[in-house]
Amino acid sequence: MADIDVLDASVFLYLEDLIEEDLFYMLVKECEDTAPVFPYWKYDRFSLESMLEDECLSEFRVSKTDIHRLVRVLQIPDDIICENGTKACALEGLCILLKRFAYPCRYSDLIPRFGRSKPELCLICNEVMRFVVGSHGYLLTSFDQEWLRANKLQEYASAVYEKSHALGNCWGFVDGTVRAICRPEKNQKTVYNGHKRVHALKYQSVIAANGLIANLFGPIEGKSHDAGILRRSDLLNNLEAYCNSEDGEPLCIYGDSAYPQRMHLQTPYKHIDLTDDEKAFNKAMSKVRVSVECIFGEIAGYFAFVDFKKNQKIGLQQVGTMYTTCALLRNAITCLYGSTTGTYFNLDPPSLEQYFQFDREFDDIHNQ
């Protein structure tokens, strides 16, 4: 768009004899668009109703009926208006976002489905992404939620104990995940992860026993240690404030040996001469913890775009916002269809409306 403006201005200045011919040709050369032209106008505009159910699940990860529910609870504006005036309806905007993240495709790959140009698709996708994170990102940072109340945490802890018979007050698990990115031009050493031997960003997640991501912190430089990320996240203070039983007893999360031992954060026994009971404890908790680690794989499994490092370009893309968006959408899918973790612990997630606090927000608006 900027090149078109420069070209128009150059033509005007040349016709008015305000610039020399050599300078005019140089400016025209600079404005030449070498990118391939995709005839988006030859394709029909998007219609969800014309899609088969299997197509919808494959391309958007959500059924046709549930996409309408998701649009409603996310409260995406009926008319999405981008900075340059491009417009789209809420349903089309969400579907563009879902298809973009479902697989590491290019915007040109979305043209046959939506009948829009690459710049339009990019603008709409980014606008919806910013809205989703801006409006609902607090669901991944705040413990002040209905499904994280004391009685619910106790229910999760009981389910974990029923499987492990080791730790009676553990309601969730904490871990860090490394997401590879494209090698940046600057600060390469800062984001280089020596353990994985890739340039990467790290995220810290707390996973509840019902399969939902309760807390997400990041992105952080790839070289950072898990204990350092824990300190920067202020997670321990939040756990102390919100994660206690109705009787005031502390409820904890469980992490690997990289984390420090605290009242609300338990870790394996680490000393050399472990007793048989301590070995049994470590083994039992390791077993239930493995069932939760698959959540990290599910984010990339449902939304493979974040797993394709060549598309994760810091400085050019909102890499952290993309991952946060996919984590929120993954929680939405868990609310709709459950998860392997919730099935393992025999726990049901809240409904989609309960998780996004849609009913409460509607009541608040109605009572104003």
TrEMBL record:
<dbReference type="Pfam" id="PF13359">
    <property type="entry name" value="DDE_Tnp_4"/>
</dbReference>
<keyword id="KW-0479">Metal-binding</keyword>
<protein>
    <submittedName>
        <fullName>Uncharacterized protein</fullName>
    </submittedName>
</protein>
<dbReference type="InterPro" id="IPR027806">
    <property type="entry name" value="HARBI1_dom"/>
</dbReference>
<dbReference type="GO" id="GO:0046872">
    <property type="term" value="F:metal ion binding"/>
</dbReference>
